[in-house]
Amino acid sequence: MRRSCSQPVAGKTAQVRNPQSAFAKASADKSAIRNPQSVTVGVLAVQGAVEKHVQMLERCGVRVIPVRFPAELDEVQGLVIPGGESTTVGKLMARYGLDAKIIERAKEGMPIFGTCTGMILLAKKIVDSDQHRLGLMDATVLRNAFGRQIDSFESDLDIECIGPPAFRAVFIRAPYAVEANSSTRVLARCEDKIVLLRQEGILACAFHPELTEDRRVHEYFIRMVTESLAKQGSRG
């Protein structure tokens, strides 16, 4: 099923005659990453859609490590928390001590990107749930907010930070943020619901960018990682 959730920038309407050439130009202009081979990104690999994120990140040119144990978090400069079952992932993180280590690394400035389940676990509040979470983002999230598995859908999103053309987003039992702190930047909405947001080094989205051929959201996160490394280098 497809839904129309585009949110054009005020006063502007994207007109794309050739989506493929427009996508190529957007990748060149907005998603260029300096020395991606020097970046190592981890993908939390306790449960969920791990391999698709690994493949997407490798296509972006970075080194990727599946993260299963706390010590492996010291080897990465950014972390992706993929989709899965949020209650299960939360329990497994706690069992193996990954949650405490992730929070420690986040406080040190390591960027984190959560998709679907990752968005839920990054939020400080989850509607009608006391499940285990990381609580790193000042947002309140509603689980399964768009319906059940049978209600999965695709939608075109206008995401200013990655540029045109619209991003074809895949929503599967997706959450959304019902509330976000003023320090949190809303990057995209679907049906007026917050589905992509950022707070400093934390990026969270309700959809599954790893299930598309479009690298731009992952490349945006990698730029967050390289910018974080540059800041750490300047302080050093």
Structure explained in plain terms:
By secondary structure, the protein is of the alpha/beta class. The chain has a single domain, classed as Class I glutamine amidotransferase (GATase) domain (Rossmann fold). The protein is 29% helix and 27% strand. It contains six helices and 13 strands. It has a seven-stranded mixed β-sheet with strand order 3-2-4-5-13-12-11. The chain has a three-stranded mixed β-sheet with strand order 1-8-9, with no helix packed on it. A hairpin with a 2-residue loop joins strand 12 (193-199) and strand 13 (202-205). It is globular. Residues 6-32 have low confidence and may be disordered.
In short:
This protein is an alpha/beta fold. It contains six helices and 13 strands.
Using only C-alpha atoms, the radius of gyration works out to 17 Å
Give the overall form: globular
Number of helices: 6
The CATH architecture is 3-Layer(aba) Sandwich
Count of discrete structural domains: 1
Q: How many E strands?
A: 13
Strand count, sense and closure of the main sheet? 7 strands, mixed
Distance between the termini: 50 Å
Estimate percent helicity.
25-40%
SSE string, helices as H and strands as E: EHEHEEHHEHEEEEEEEEH
Identify the strand order in the major beta sheet: 3-2-4-5-13-12-11
What is the CATH topology?
Rossmann fold
CATH superfamily name?
A: Class I glutamine amidotransferase (GATase) domain
By secondary-structure content and strand pairing, the structural class works out as alpha/beta
- Average per-residue pLDDT, rounded, comes to 87
CATH top level? Alpha Beta
